[in-house]
């Protein structure tokens, strides 16, 4: 299964980017994950008649993927502008997210993980007709204590839970493709 991975942070040492890379490596036998570049121009309808090359490439990668993994930080109780901008581009002209299966994970240093951002993200994606894996929320709190210096997730309970969520997503995808 080819999975487009959208990380809602541009920061090089983002916990969410670290989480995405961990997922990409650990579950390589189940998912062919590709981290997409979300450093896109701000969405502007005036650009739709002559899309910037990086937007064309991004939309093609999302369109060609079998599924999408959203890895979201939480900014002011919501998703980041970076992630919202990417979703806006993916939803315009061609509906690259419609009917696409997906799942959501997120990590933060706070105690609630990315609960509020993920709730908001689910609301946004629902309007696009995405099929998001239900009842498998991954809210990694205290992320600064759960990764080692190599970027490996070292909290055994979190890894075991993530193993089950990825397995559930693979089964969800197989049932819904």
UniProtKB/TrEMBL annotation:
Entry GO terms, CC: cytosol
Domain of life: Bacteria
Pfam families: FMN_red
Xref: InterPro entries: Flavoprotein-like_sf, FMN_Rdtase-like_dom, NAD(P)H-dep_reductase
One example GO MF annotation: FMN binding
Positions of the NADPH-dependent FMN reductase-like domain: 1-144
Entry similarity comment: Belongs to the azoreductase type 2 family.
Protein name, as recorded: NAD(P)H-dependent oxidoreductase
Origin organism lineage: Bacteria, Bacillati, Bacillota, Bacilli, Bacillales
